Amino acid sequence: MLAKAYFNIRNTGFVVASMFVFILLIEYVSLIFFDDLGDGFLKLLEGQLLVIYLFAIFFAIRLVGLWHLFTMFLLTFGLFLLSRPILDVLGYQYSYIVESLVQVDVPMLIRIEIVMVLSCSILIFQICFLYFVRFEDVNFSLPSLKTDQNLISLGKFLMISSSPLVLFRSYQQIMLIKTLGYGALFSGEVQQADMNPIVRLSITFFSIGYYFIIGGKPSKKKFIGYSFFYLGLSMLNLIIGSRMGIVLNVLFILWYLHAVYGQKFKFKKIFLYFTVAIICLQVVALKRISSEVDMGIGEMIFSFFSFQGISMITLAIYIQYGSTFVAHTVPYVLDPLYYGINVIFNPWLLRAGQSVETIAVRSDFGHHLTYSMNENYYLSGFSLGTSFISELYEFGIFGVLFGCVLLTWLITYFSRKVKVSKYLLIFSMLIVSHVLSTPRGNFFYNTYILFRLILMMIIIYYIYILFKKIKNQLSTNGQKVLD
Q1: Do residues 154 and 212 make contact, with C-beta atoms less than 8 angstroms apart?
Q2: What is the mean pLDDT of residues 39-65?
Q3: Mean pLDDT over all residues of the chain?
Q4: What is the pLDDT of residue 96?
């Protein structure tokens, strides 16, 4: 892309976003003077939300392409937070989705508030991205990083050596879920099951091995091979009904292929594959609820989007019932950062799962929302989850806007620096997966998991280097003796 075209697109994006900001201000003022606005006004806002979202996607693709992290984030944002408002404005119903937790009748004014909050969020994302992105970001590749054979060799060893235990651990989990039910994954029953600590650590070693290979920047062919190996074992999660991790793994692989090797993807093929994936994932989700699935393909696709859009409901519930939630000690958004300290004083948290004791010491939004609305549902291991928008809304619209600015800056900073930083590339899977899951997850990453992972990676890497030096020294001494 030429510099002139880049700046023209960027400036046009600013103008369009500014126009919608002005329109939203007018609509907000109208809400102050007219409190009897009904379904027609909501439909107008939902249609406007769809237009704002499509413009944001359009400018992101035009500037940095479909597989830039920011564009991919916008897509998951739309899936998890905008699906239901967009389905509503299109006239589709989603009442066939199995209801859970509690019956929630969201008042009209709260529906309007949610749509306006989401519209403001997208506009802030677009404006900040246009401001933070640079011309050099348009050429998204990694020409300056070289292959690190040490990381690749170490990663290969870790993946191969730990894979039998990973298979065994997956088998144990499948048997436990078959006996206890899916909710046991989150209620703490699986964590409390008697498993050998080496077996429990196997999945961590397996993942670390893959992270090292990622950071080593292998050839494209080898990366695809290692990724298929990694995905193959991850697919076992489908058996127990866990879909999110697999989807994030696939999205990361697509991002990496484009970012590192400049891989181009044909839109028609990707669209076809994702349509098939949507149907398969929805079948898995419905099978988890009922043994029989009686839906047409079209109905199943719309069911999928409605099902994924449940994250928006967490914001609706918080706005309507937040004042009745159980008390929490730190802001919801900071709970993942505080968790590392929390575990030091409450080590039992590592195996507690969803329990009354967990609620007493943690400030996780998803835990508190589900427990406050339906205690039995929560203690059975089920949850509506969370969303970074819902967490940030504890501080009102300004909290959401600040979070959107910070997240956009982090995305653009990472996308630029990963081109030249081996360390960022090693952790790229964690970063990309977390960014893409924030619309349905926490704003911050869990500090305990992160610090433990970093510590283990450092220890493993330096033990490997030490053994390699000893081996080389012995080889050198042996050669001298022969000479």
Answers
A1: yes
A2: 92
A3: 85
A4: 30
CB 220 within 8 A of CB 186: no
The closest alpha carbon to 246, from 270, 261, 230, belongs to: 230
Q: What is the CA 322 to chain-centroid distance, rounded?
A: 24
Please name the residue ranges forming H helices in 34-148: 39-64, 69-77, 83-89, 108-132
d(CA 435, CA 59): 20
Whether the CB-CB separation of 74 and 54 falls below 8 Å is answered with no
Sign of the Cα pseudo-torsion (93, 96, 98, 103, in order): positive
The fraction of the chain above a pLDDT of 70, given in percent, is 84
Three-class secondary structure of residue 442 per DSSP: coil
C-alpha to C-alpha distance for 333 and 272, rounded to whole angstroms: 37
Helix (H) or strand (E) holding 255: helix 244-261
* Helix, strand or coil, per DSSP, at residue 280: helix
pLDDT tens-digit series, residues 94-104: 433 345 666 77
How many angstroms separate the CA atoms of 36 and 421, rounded? 55
Distance of CA 243 to the CA centre of its chain: 12
How far is it, in rounded angstroms, from Cα 466 to Cα 460?
10
Torsion, Cα 14 15 19 25, to 10 degrees, reads 40
CA dist 384 and 369 (Å) reads 8
> Which residues contact residue 284 at a Cβ distance below 8 angstroms, ignoring those fewer than 6 apart?
238, 241, 243
**Cα-based distances in Å from 313 to 13, 44, 291, 310, 345:** 30, 20, 26, 5, 33
349-389: pLDDT as tens digits = 877 778 888 999 999 999 999 999 888 888 887 788 899 99
* Residue ranges in 330-444 assigned as alpha helix (H): 335-345, 356-361, 365-373, 375-379, 388-392, 396-417, 422-426, 428-437
Share of the chain above pLDDT 90, in %: 46
pTM score: 0.90
Q: What is the DSSP letter of 68?
A: S
Q: Do residues 111 and 316 make contact, with C-beta atoms less than 8 angstroms apart?
A: yes
pLDDT-derived band at 290 (thresholds 50, 70, 90) equals low
